Amino acid sequence: MKVARLAATVAAAGLALTLAACGGNPTNTASGSDTSGASASSSGSGGSGSTAPVVGSASFPESEVLAEIYAQALQAKGIDASTHLDIGQREAYIGALKDGSISLFPEYTGNLLTYFQPNATQTAPDDVLTALKAALPDTLTVLTPAAAEDKDSYNVTADFAAKHHLTSIADLKGISGLSLAGNPELKTRSYGVPGLQKVYGISGIKFTAISDSGGPATLKALTSGKVDVADIYSTTPSITQNHLVTLTDPQHLIAAQNVIPLIRKDHDNATVDQTLDAVSAKLTTQSLLDLNAKLNGPSTPKASDVAAQWLKDNGLA
Amino acid sequence: MSVFSQAMSWLSDGAHWQGDDGFPHRIAQHVGYTALTVAIATAIAVPLGLWIGHTGRLRGLAVAVTGALRALPTLGLLTLMVLWRGIGLTPPTIALVVLAIPPLLAGAYAGLESVDRATVDAARAIGMTEWQVLGRVEIPLAMPLILGGIRSAVLQVVATATIAAYIGLGGLGRYLIDGLAVRDYPQMLAGSLVIVVLALVLDGCFAVLQRVLSPQR
Predict the structure, then answer these.
(1) Superfamily grouping for domain B3-212
(2) Do B82 and A184 touch (CB under 8 A)?
């Protein structure tokens, strides 16, 4: 009995490994992607003659929906794109891009730059992009970034903003005994308490470390008035759901994190560029907030369906 | 240099032994949370356990409820309490009291059950009231097991009070949570070592106390 069960477990594990290995194959069609439009498997429209692009994503909903948007936008232009979602951490998917098992990936400018250049200090969007282009390996390139950003952001309640006439981080300077909540690293990181002091001259900040990355406990601390300001990622649906005010960052304290297509050079051609540039032109932080709110919605729709709807609404497919 | 030797030099750095972030202050906070939690949990669980043990009533229910409480994940409970009460001292205290109640309750009722029925009957036979039976016979004889319950509760709470740092309070959990946030593993290991030593010292104190307060045999 036990031996049979053990054998079955080993066989299942072996099968899982084989399947996982298959997932790296560029000809493999996509987990969860809409295969309509991928039926005509013509070899390389656009004249480059290369194989069909595979769009990868990291393992969080926003990355998956962006990958679906890229893939379906390309499919609408007759390119036989497929997706390979849920790859995990940057170490894993950059490796997959380098070995060619995926060819296109929705990335964020600032984080991608620090991956290739850990001591990078650029924070303004243009500076980050310039540095990023210089830091990329020879086989990879980036296209035009979108206005959309997913990054740390300082948020206050609507009441607090109205009371102190706040629109920007700089407006916090006059408030004495300001309290701030966020992940523990905010206490020492350059974009956290030290930066607020040095760049914006806000002193005497009372910091409360809450280790849920701007999740429910941080939100509760802000909405219950225990803290004045909270660090919440800029595309978290709770920002709009609770009518929070995200303070602007005129001095670029927080490094830019624009959404940008990272692509293998052997898959980059005029059609792909035009298609993805058109997508990036429509993609704003508000779009990401709406997409995330939909993905987190009670009906938990599939990323592929949410992506299809967004492309349709923006006249891209 | 290995993480272990880095942790050792982190521990021996004088700068880490003073101020609000220093070990003495963090240890005091940690012991404070533990004492508060165990005091509240003892006030709830020990009288209840003594009543259950003395009367024999609701024993099945007590076993079932303590079993269920033991299965509750403390961090999950903490998050739930934060959503209900906001951040502050209350959420971790409630979460840790729930953690401490099962061993205290079990120690109290099992302690009374361990007392020889013949001894209890003899006490009644010489005319003791129920309160005298409880206070002069049952509790003194059950003391080793009651203390065992407190000892076990203290150890669990000392080890778990680190979660207070998750929502911005102090205690030794700060070293773990702050270290993890910036991948400072020597700091995390140093914090863990201090927690281990603190737990061993407290356990040693209880071992002595248990020996002193046990009835002579």
Answers:
(1) MetI-like (1.10.3720.10)
(2) no
Q: A114 and A247 in contact (C-beta within 8 Å)?
A: no
Tens of pLDDT, residues A271-303: 999 999 999 999 999 999 999 999 988 888 999
**pLDDT above 80 (res A8):** no
Per DSSP bridges, beta strands A82-84 and A54-56 are parallel
The distance between the two most distant Cα atoms of chain A, rounded to a whole number of Å, is 73
d(C-alpha B190, C-alpha B43), whole Å: 34
In terms of DSSP bridges, do strands A140-142 and A206-209 run parallel, antiparallel, or are they unpaired? unpaired
pLDDT digit string, tens, across residues A48-92: 445 789 999 999 999 999 999 999 999 999 999 999 999 988 889
Q: Tell which of A186, A208, A210, A218 to mutate to test the B interface (max B CBs under 10 Å).
A: A210
Question: Interface pTM (ipTM) of the complex?
Answer: 0.76
Compute the average pLDDT of residues B87-100: 94
Could you give the count of Cα atoms lying within 13 Å of B139 in the half-sphere of its Cβ?
12
Taking the C-alpha atoms of residue B133 and residue A127, their distance in angstroms, rounded to an integer, is 81
- Is B86–A181 a contact, with Cβ atoms under 8 angstroms apart? no
| Burial class of residue A245 (count of CB atoms within 10 Å of its CB; 0-12, 13-18, 19+) | middle
